[in-house]
Amino acid sequence: MPRPKNALPNKLAHLSGQDRVFLDGKYYYLGLSGSEEAQVKYDSLVAIYLANGRKMPEGVPTHQADTAPTVAHVTAAFRRNLETKYVNSPDEGRRYRKLCDELDDFFGDVEAVKFGPLKLESFRELLEASGITRRTINGQIKSIVRIFKHAVSRELIPVSVVESLRTLDPLRYGQTTAPEQKEREPVKLEHVRATAKFLSPVVRRMVMVQVGTGMRPSEVIRMRPCDIDTSGEVWIYKPVRHKTMHRGKQRAIPIVGESRAAIQPYMDRAADEYLFSPTESYQWHLEQRAKNRKTPKSYGNRSGTNRKANPKWKTGSLWRPDTYRNQIKRAAEKAQVPHWFPYQLRHTNLTHVRQSLGIEYSQALGGHSTRQMAEHYARIAEAKAIEAALAAPSIG
Hints:
hpI Integrase, Chain A; 16 helices
């Protein structure tokens, strides 16, 4: 039996003091053995090799050590950074990978030091032509500058490259053909109630918690018993991970009323187990399908007999935000109400609180504050958040 082919060609040290890699019948020399530059050039060459069906295209120099770093080398270095930096933010990691792919497609062979404001502007024009919003385009351009900034930290390019890229002014309102982003509107509670009738009990309780607390979807799907302080009269949920944790902010979310009732049945789970299980939701859908089966049980397959013992796809222990969103989308279609998103529940809650009590209470419940204010007014904010939670809407 032939030996299986390695998934990736190995990087090898050579007597010359350089690293090299054997690709498609040729050795490609990468530069000083063990250096960051050699690693980046290895990553870039292997990406080309795999993208071309384990073949190397014509014209790729065999002595990479003699070539100046290109945009492809810059993106290769950043991809290595993605493996650790965005391990807990997969959506953000995918966005950066796609951006790196687009840079490679249009500017991969360009010397990194020659990628200046004009080339960045030409890339921005491509984004404008694609129809995405002005705010998204400005965010993508900032991300590209961040990619090149990382290359500076790896000593691949001089800092002057990043400084020149920063001279490109962002797109201003009314000065571009790119459309403006629509403000996210609160969802009407009657639409939420109608949708909830077609949701699984698990997802329905997640919606109830969001309406009552103003949590972000990422916060509600990660709730665990160990993160909820039940020692006081008001339960307090302190997410281990949240949007602004990298700024040193703490998040304390009061759980009262309908929200507390929604999570109560799940509080006896293991301390580190997620409250809301996608497996339980999936099982409920299977039960409903069997319950509503029109084919007589004496005909066709008996329930469960056609399921694979070891299926390739299995439900996980944690909800994915897009899966949660799709559950609501399908239920809204069945309820024949306008499509809405889980994040709109946060806006519904905070809008209601702001109108009822004022903006300070909305900020306290939503976790909107500066780092300095969070430290100085922590106790005041928590008190206001509790009062705000008591005034929050419900769908019951």
